[in-house]
Amino acid sequence: MSNEQRPVWHKRVTEAISADELAEREALWVPLTEEVRELVSTAILSEVDEHAVALARQHIRAAQEILGTKVDTGSFGMHVNDEGLAWNWGNAATGQKNAVAPPLCQVPIADGVRYEADFGAGYEGPPGCLHGGWIALILDHASGRAAHLEGNGPTFTGTLTIRYLQPTRLGPAVAHAWVETRTANKFVVRCTLSTEDGVTAESEGVFVLARWARKPQED
Ligand SMILES: CCCCCCCCCCCCCCCC(=O)SCCNC(=O)CCNC(=O)[C@H](O)C(C)(C)COP(=O)(O)OP(=O)(O)OC[C@H]1O[C@@H](n2cnc3c(N)ncnc32)[C@H](O)[C@@H]1OP(=O)(O)O
């Protein structure tokens, strides 16, 4: 795919970095992401006094200043190297550098895609339960990933229909997505979200291999 074919919004950064160096970089940043995510949860649940809040804010501002001494602009985008590795660490569902992303862990399975996560206080919607918007994100991402693996290219959500079957309690949850049918550029993907209560939400989505990413004979 040439840069000319790629839309203007598709930020792509080429880096001269080996797979080993990339793994080292990942090992450097992922703990920070986890700590920031934990900070969000602790801030929600904390009951300390005003002096402790003021002190915590000083430390957070100091951390912000340290990290801010060297920053990229805009979004992270898609980074690639010349060995064919690609990493989108700003992704809102699974980005390694994105503390806003839920703590999804992809587990290899033969039939489609499986993500596991333990949802804490930062993901609450109805009291004690996972917010419906997060449920939509998880179903969307797992389904998109399943389509991506089969289609071998960037698949975009065309339509996503969700049925919320019962409240999803905070805590451990599992998403399972699989491609039901496919044509050259279009995938119909089903996904379920389950907790210890059983399936709490299910979706059916149409995912489309972006026109600009198709091989000419596929268009
Ligand atoms: C670490 C390394 C990283 C590597 C990387 C890994 C990433 C791996 C995980 C990714 C996981 C992402 C999961 C989240 C995915 C989003 O969140 S994507 C963001 C939300 N979606 C969007 O922004 C999409 C916006 N819409 C569009 O860009 C375009 O309308 C679309 C959806 C791409 C379709 O446009 P198009 O390519 O021009 O489609 P077109 O050729 O006209 O139609 C092709 C077929 O699709 C059908 N179709 C078109 N639009 C629709 C629609 N909206 N609904 C249903 N069917 C449709 C057509 O009817 C046609 O069907 P057939 O005639 O073939 O039967």
What does this structure look like?
By secondary structure, the protein is an alpha+beta fold. The protein is built from three helices and nine strands. A hairpin with a 2-residue loop joins strand 8 and strand 9. The protein is flat. The chain binds Palmitoyl-CoA (PKZ). Keywords: Apoptosis, Cell membrane, Cell projection, Cytoplasm, Fatty acid metabolism, Hydrolase, Lipid metabolism, Membrane, Transit peptide. Its EC number is 3.1.2.2.
Notable traits:
cell projection; flat; 30% helix; 2 domains; 9 strands; 219 residues; Thiol Ester Dehydrase, Chain A; fatty acid metabolism; cell membrane; alpha+beta; six-stranded antiparallel beta sheet; binds Palmitoyl-CoA; transit peptide
Describe, in short, the structure shown:
It comes from Nocardioides dubius. The protein has 219 residues and is of the alpha+beta class. It has 3 helices and 9 strands, in the order E-H-H-E-E-E-E-H-E-E-E-E.
